[in-house]
Description:
By secondary structure, the protein is an alpha+beta fold. The chain has helices spanning 45-57, 113-119, 123-136, and strands at 2-15, 18-26, 32-33, 36-37, 60-64, 70-78, 81-95, 105-111.
Amino acid sequence: MRKERSYGIIALQKSSTFWNILLIQHTSSLHWAFPKGRPEVGEAPLDTAIRELKEETGLNVVKLLLNAPFTEEYRFFRKGVETHKQVDYYLAEVEGELEICPQEIVQASWQSFADAKHVLTYPESIRVLSTVESFLHT
């Protein structure tokens, strides 16, 4: 079994008294998720997450809301090979003009937490979203 690691940002913007969360639709599989990507050689996990957010969406991290990441794990098959993937997401407030990278992203949208649960494609992403929501309301 092959193993992969990716790192991403769960991007938040505050609107009045509630948070909006950024979801992206990937060009490769058309699924909805959070921005993420693989590290470059020697790159630290948080640096990877910040770079990928900037490359995919044009957004910048303003404030990291938690030092520890939220983790998502799943298995899939690529070219007949089973892959175990772990993605660590850092929770951050972001700013900037949303400009998607069309080579990687079909579209992106800001969602309320309630709406995001209906947009995200995979149950593991919804579980991470629920964990983030609980963290923000404690």
